[in-house]
Predict the structure.
Amino acid sequence: MCSSRHLTYEFLQDHDIPHCKCGKIIVALVKTELKALEDLKKRGDDNGVENLRLLDEIEVRKLEPG
């Protein structure tokens, strides 16, 4: 089974359309939100979402210093 995301990237590549897989960063602003992020990651993992990671503050600042 191919996801719509995979089909989109295949279409872009087949038609030489420039694109960037930029990813997303979802952050917890307070410690009480950490459980929600862990649950979100588990749901993504269970649904086959690739390349999900939980990052600490230092890793996030390297990716997005602003």
